[in-house]
TrEMBL record:
A motif (RDXXRA motif of the pArg binding pocket involved in allosteric regulation) lies at residues 338-343. HAMAP family: Prot_Arg_kinase. Appears to be allosterically activated by the binding of pArg-containing polypeptides to the pArg-binding pocket localized in the C-terminal domain of McsB. This is Protein-arginine kinase. The keyword Transferase applies. ATP binds at residues 27-31, 92, 126, 177-181, 208-213. Pfam families: ATP-gua_Ptrans. Keywords: Allosteric enzyme, ATP-binding, Kinase, Nucleotide-binding, Transferase. Residues 24-255 form the Phosphagen kinase C-terminal domain. It comes from Virgibacillus chiguensis. GO terms for biological process: phosphocreatine biosynthetic process. It comes from the Bacteria. It is an enzyme of class 2 (transferase). One of its GO terms (molecular function) is protein arginine kinase activity.
Length: 354
């Protein structure tokens, strides 16, 4: 398989589209946690009950279409190899936890991979819906509509006072996590991000890495999401998140402008050194690759690097993850082998640009 073919198959179709403020906001996501009424949550349920839920989704929704979300594919986690599970995690189609729930877990994925419905994760249902760029209100509306479609056949666990009931108390209420993935290299370079994160936390939001809770913010990519799910409506939660994200976008753009005015030579040196590493290195660890890709993406966005696609960061941040590298190689690779293949794939990808 050529790199071009692999990229075309590996990158989710929605990721190839630009959205509002896509120079800073990579994606917007709404995740809804739901459970069946009168069935214990996965943490306490009998495996037989969870198998019935799994079978229910396969019978009712496999191959179905709702709106633009066509041909829902039903995937049993127990039927996947370790590498295939890792690839789905790296594409954000399933969580690391679902990958471990092998026997009774499954996922429904739309053809454009914009919707994924995790089955028997921490809750019976975890609906995820993605949009490119800063489109969190659009994502919320689409998630509501998809959720209503599901509820036509499912009796949700719901309490008039508490809202949607979930396995973890921190999700009770709306059962919603709204999150925005942002590329904030200038705020990192100027060290402003260090004072901003505590302030954001005080507003009931949380800042995490690219793979959510417990993950590192590699490549200057941060995920901003709500912590509070009880006592506020979904619209209010999203409005709070929007307000903070807009301020971060403004601050990031201002920081980029100031760096260009005050330290353009140093920034240009950093960007072209990073491009040189990506273009010629024979061994690249994931952290170094993420840093260099972030610098190159910044160079593209501020106009210092020409004739290189902005989508290069989105593509290569995924394609150079361990699961994808092993999927491309069609075998399990040692860390040193992954580092060599990562460097090779990046060199080839840059050559495609040229």
């Amino acid at each position: 398989m050529t790199l071009r073919q692999f990229m075309n198959e590996a990158i989710s179709p929605w990721m190839r589209k630009d959205g509002p403020d896509s120079d800073i906001v990579l994606s917007s996501r709404i995740r809804l946690a739901r459970n069946f009424a009168n069935i214990p949550y996965p943490i306490a349920a009998d495996p037989k009950d969870l198998e019935e839920i799994r079978s229910f989704f396969q019978e009712k929704y496999e191959g179905q279409t709702y709106g633009v979300y066509k041909d829902l594919a039903f995937v049993s986690i127990r039927d996947l190899s370790a590498i295939e599970k890792r690839v789905l995690v790296e594409k954000h189609l399933i969580s690391p936890l679902l990958a471990k729930q092998s026997e009774v877990a499954a996922v429904l994925i739309s053809e454009n991979e914009q919707v994924s419905l995790m089955i028997n994760e921490e809750d019976h249902i975890r609906l995820q819906l993605y949009f490119p760029g800063f489109q969190i209100t659009e994502a919320l509306q689409q998630a509501f509509e998809f959720d209503d479609w599901l509820e036509e056949k499912i009796n949700y666990a719901f309490d008039e006072k508490r809202g949607y009931l979930t396995s973890c108390p921190t999700n009770v209420g709306t059962g919603m996590r709204a999150s925005v993935m942002m590329h904030l290299p200038a705020l990192v370079l100027t060290k402003q991000i260090n004072r901003m994160i505590p302030a954001i936390n005080q507003l009931g939001l949380v800042v995490r890495g690219i793979y959510g809770e417990g993950s590192e913010a590699q490549g200057n990519i941060f995920q901003i999401s709500n912590q509070i799910t009880l006592g506020k409506s979904e619209e209010d939660i999203v409005a709070d998140l929007q307000s903070v994200v807009k301020q971060l976008i403004e601050q990031e753009r201002y920081a980029r402008q100031r760096i260009m005015e005050q330290s353009k030579d140093q920034l240009e040196d950093r960007i072209f050194r990073s491009y040189g590493v990506l273009a010629y290195a024979r061994i690249l660890e994931s952290k170094e690759a993420a840093t260099c890709l972030s610098n190159v993406r910044l160079g593209i966005d501020v106009g210092l690097l020409k004739n290189v696609s902005r989508n290069i960061l989105n593509e290569l941040m995924i394609l150079t993850q361990p699961g994808f590298l092993q999927h491309y190689a069609k075998k399990t690779l040692a860390a040193s082998e992954r580092d060599q293949l990562r460097a090779s794939l990046i060199r080839q990808r840059l050559q495609l640009e040229e």
